[in-house]
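wait is this the right file?? whatever heres the structure
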């Protein structure tokens, strides 16, 4: 039971961080938090010769990375 409460607490911290970032950047005008998470779920990672390649990177995903000041993966 303690583990479930801890995981729930950590997930609330992450969701509040995402909410704060979306509010500061005005992302709620275009997309909801649920839609944003669905866009990010579509990312796939493949390792080729030791390099991690992320695909497909859509315009919306690039915008999400830019708004949260995360460098776009290759």
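ok assuming it is, sequence goes like this
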């Amino acid at each position: 039971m303690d583990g479930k409460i801890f995981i729930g607490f950590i997930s609330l911290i992450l969701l509040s961080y995402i909410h704060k970032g979306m509010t500061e950047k005005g992302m709620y005008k275009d997309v909801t938090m649920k839609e944003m998470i669905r866009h990010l779920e579509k990312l796939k990672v493949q390792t080729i010769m030791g390099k991690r390649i992320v695909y497909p990177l859509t315009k919306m995903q690039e915008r999400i990375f830019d708004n949260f000041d995360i460098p776009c993966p290759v």
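The beta strands are 44-48, 51-55. so i think its the right one actually
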